[in-house]
Amino acid sequence: MMCLVSRTGRELQRYDMGRRLVVGCIPYRYQNGNGELEVLVISSQKGHAMMFPKGGWELDESVEEAASRECFEEAGVVGIVECELGKWCFKSKSRGIYHEGYMFPMLVGEELEIWPEKHLRQRVWMKVEEAREVCQSWWMKEALDVFVERLKSPATFIKEDFLE
To answer: N or C terminus: which one in the chain shows less Cβ crowding within 10 Å?
Structure first.
């Protein structure tokens, strides 16, 4: 059974040297008809910007669990969280403090009809090029570029996975 309430507050979130640790995902799927790659973007809570799901990394969860939770809460999708795309340091627009952001791809297995932030956000499937255009965060655009490059060279991705 899933909880239909988003976690709130920052008192149980992780910080490192004063930086809030945030985790996000690039939810993706392949269209059934033509096999074309699509990614899912969501609106910000105020609806002025488009982005990928992301939020604070809680003390009681792994980084992959945090990524999965954010996709469920904000975008209403569940799936397989894959190997980390990277880590970015960026300044928060609203609070002016630095964050450390980790991004992961998520192969979506299910798109839910009801999810915690359904009434706060819009979700839109789009082609990679469109998502790159509308995404407001430079670091998420970079993560998208890393993801696309990884898909172009799966042999490198697999080899790196075994080296860890």
So the answer is: N
